[in-house]
Design brief:
Elements lengths: L3 H5 L2 H21 L8 H8 L3 H13 L3 E7 L6 E7 L4 H25 L2 E4 L4 E4 H6 L12 E3 L2 H17 L4
Helix pairs in contact: 2-4, 3-4, 5-7
The structure holds zinc ion (ZN).
Zinc ion (ZN) binds next to loops.
Length: about 170
Amino acid sequence: MESASDLLNDPAVRAYLFRLVGNEGLDLIERFPTDGEHSDEELAASTKINLNTVRHTLYTLYEKRLAEYHRIKNNETGWLTYLWQLRLDQIYDALREDMAMVLEKLERREKYEEENDFYICKECQILFTFPQAMNTDFNCTDCEKPMTHFDNDLLLKSLKYRIDAIRKTLGQV
Ligand SMILES: [Zn+2]
């Protein structure tokens, strides 16, 4: 397994984690002790990161299966302690899932762009679909000035380009 610091040098991994947990979250991941399991309070103390940030980061990572915990019950007090460790070995699965979600969104957008004809008010920079434009006789709903046809070819082209690139990365082509 690659070490956490190796993984964090991968720009794609870093960008993904940054979007997921932000700067402080990345800080926590970088300062996370490399061995053993740790409670949120221990982690806050050893990394000097705010306890709530530690908790929120752990939970967010947990949702993506990038962190896991196990519970220990103190038999005298009945209190539960959660001991955490990172599972950065799962990061490439998380990245693939994320990419698959982005792909789905882009494909939906592509379909929408392909199935619609667009009109724009150049004054207000508002876009209308054909039925919307029809409703107001091709006059802007805001300033009432006439709309012009909006050519979405460039947008579609760049959408297709991005979709293609992701499909290739995911091994779908
Ligand atoms: Zn307008």
